[in-house]
Amino acid sequence: MAASMCDVFSFCVGVAGGARGSVEVRFVSSAKGKGLFATQPIRKGETIFIERPLVASQFLWNALYRYRACDHCLRALEKAEENAQRLTGKPGQVLPHPELCSVRKDLHQNCPHCQVMYCSAECRRAAAEQYHQTLCPGPSQDDPRHPLNKLQEAWRSVHYPPETASIMLMARMVATVKQAKDKDHWVRLFSHFCSKTANEEEEIVHKLLGDKFKGQLELLRRLFTEALYEETLSQWFTPDGFRSLFALVGTNGQGIGTSSLSQWVHACDALELKPQDREQLDTFIDQLYKDIEAATGEFLNCEGSGLFVLQSCCNHSCVPNAETSFPENNFLLHVTALEDIKPGEQKYVSATWTAVSGSAADTADTRFSEADDPNVTSEEEEEEEEEEGEPEDAELGDEMTDV
């Protein structure tokens, strides 16, 4: 059963001009499914909507390698200076203007049973009410024999960095239904996301798991069933249903990236400084990112993925008219217009899967490209090349991740 529009909009937490008045979901075609269309003029640079996900989860390797994030909203938990020290491998790294760091450690709380960390009491309560009571391993947090730990270890053994999905996103979907008073409501919401044919599903799972995906998928299904079986969702635990669930997450999962260092950099950029002080600070930050690149490479951020109802209705184009970002350093997704959008126009986002839009990697890329040419960024160069070689209004399918 398809989710109602009331269900859809109830999860849009804030929209410039109001979600109901500025955008609407329409059926496009059997091939492309739904699309998101403007119902009123939207100006370039305007925030079209802000949305929180139905479920979100940090990537497992990302968490294992001490990228500390709130277990619910993925807000980065390290102070900016701590973040810089870990990413550069320099314990003595000091950042100027420490007062610009937005991390509030005095607000952090952990689950009293399994000790996972949250950025606030609000996130701890929200997680407990939605899914964590089901998923909390209690004192077995580090016991390799616990069913959830066996499932996570199996996932890490078949899906190495760079990560594009997490088995725990699926686990939170099941746990949400298990804990819900109105289970049918959540089943309807999850059924909103686009589905694929059996052949398309197989191709998506193959890309996620590699050449031996059939054996790997069956192992994951068995462990998933042992840890989480729910009668209401019995179809998800069959071989075909599990493959469909896997493909749903691979198709619709939106990457999320957060970074306390990125927040600090943006705050530094907003400072009003004397020209000499500005040049000194910018030089420091540019060198900092070069040191991080040398020590850590591309893995700058707390990364995960989430399922967003409205965002999933945005089809893809190589010449997008909107972009997604996470400027609040948590899982709240902002969709912003890249150009003026007229009423009736469909909203398209980039065809490239980006887990870190608006976060530290994005900040670093922008700074390095500006250092090469103060007037043209690498993204602008790519867009110009794409526009020259791409037919007008070219679109890709409605896959939401480049798996």
From TrEMBL:
Query: Region annotation Disordered: residue ranges?
Result: 358-403
Q: Which UniProt keywords apply?
A: Cytoplasm, Metal-binding, Methyltransferase, S-adenosyl-L-methionine, Transferase, Zinc, Zinc-finger
Broad class of the protein's primary localization: cytoplasm
Check the record and name the Gene3D superfamilies matching this protein. SET domain
Q: Where in the cell is it found?
A: Cytoplasm
Which InterPro entries did the record assign? Answer: SET_dom, SET_dom_sf, SMYD5_SET
Entry EC no(s): 2.1.1.359, 2.1.1.372
Biased-composition ranges, Acidic residues, are 378-403
The record places domain SET at 21-352
Catalytic reactions on record: L-lysyl(20)-[histone H4] + 3 S-adenosyl-L-methionine = N(6),N(6),N(6)-trimethyl-L-lysyl(20)-[histone H4] + 3 S-adenosyl-L-homocysteine + 3 H(+); L-lysyl(36)-[histone H3] + 3 S-adenosyl-L-methionine = N(6),N(6),N(6)-trimethyl-L-lysyl(36)-[histone H3] + 3 S-adenosyl-L-homocysteine + 3 H(+); L-lysyl-[protein] + 3 S-adenosyl-L-methionine = N(6),N(6),N(6)-trimethyl-L-lysyl-[protein] + 3 S-adenosyl-L-homocysteine + 3 H(+)
- Protein name as it appears in the record: Protein-lysine N-trimethyltransferase SMYD5
